[in-house]
């Protein structure tokens, strides 16, 4: 897809979203070289930097963050929007510590609920997208739920669940080859598994 069309789609989708855990797009303008987005201020920066600094989040904090992301996803899916690139780098932190889902560059409005496009970030791709046997099959908003499980794992462990070389990451995702460390509580491990990661 041409970059201009992708940006236009991102603007169209994000300008129609109103949720406390989704970064608000107030408007946009452009000149001959650039498109400028006027976005809500997320004063505490990118969540990925916090995760890198802390190594991993305590379970109570991860639970708070996942609850916020789940409510944002429920809202998106009710509006027939699939984000398709959920990862700590695409989540900002507001002035009061609340999460703000951002970067809707790979998102799509899909009233039919079914898509075929391979997009997003490899470490956070679900099996529906990376499995060569399934690449010609349509997928739906469940890919975002799978990414929510990957996000929970990353919050609790400090790295993506299938992180490896690109080829091995793809293979591990398809096989569900993931180990949850023993320091993760049985309840959190169970939740990760129920959100389709294993």
* Number of DSSP strand runs: 6
In angstroms, what separates the terminal alpha carbons?
32 Å
How is the biggest beta sheet arranged?
Answer: 2 strands, antiparallel
User: How large a portion of the residues is in β-strands, by DSSP E?
Assistant: 5-15%
Helical amount among residues, as a percent range? 40-55%
User: What's the rounded overall pLDDT mean?
Assistant: 85
**What characteristic shape results from the CA principal axes?**
globular
Structural class: alpha+beta
Order of helices and strands: HEEHHEEEEHHHH
User: How many helix segments?
Assistant: 7
Question: C-alpha Rg, in Å?
Answer: 17 Å
User: How do the strands line up in the largest sheet?
Assistant: 1-2
Low-confidence stretches: none
Could you name the key traits of this structure?
198 residues; alpha+beta; two-stranded antiparallel ribbon; 7 helices; 6 strands; 42% helix
What would you note in describing this structure?
By secondary structure, the protein is α+β, with helices and mostly antiparallel strands. The protein has helices at 3-15, 47-54, 59-78, 127-130, 142-157, 166-175, 186-197, and strands at residues 25-30, 35-39, 81-82, 91-93, 99-101, 108-109. It has a two-stranded antiparallel sheet. A two-stranded antiparallel sheet has the order 3-6. A hairpin with a 5-residue loop joins strand 4 (91-93) and strand 5 (99-101). The longest helix has 20 residues, at 59-78. The radius of gyration is 17 Å and the shape is globular. It starts with a helix and ends with a helix. The relative contact order is 0.14.
